[in-house]
Amino acid sequence: MADARKLTALRLTGGHRTLAERSFATLHEAIVTGLLAPGERLPIEELAEVLEMSPMPIREALRQLDSVGLVENIPHRGARVTELSIDDLQEVYDARLALEPLTVRHAAERFTAEEATAARARLEEHVKAYRSRDLRLIWSTHTAFHFALYEGAHSRWMTRLIKPLWETSERYRFAMLPVRMNLDQRRLEHERILEACAGHEPEFAATELHNHLARTANLIANAMGAPDLFELLDTVASFAPALAAGIPPTASSERVVDAP
Question: Same structural domain for residues 51 and 157?
Answer without folding.
Answer: no
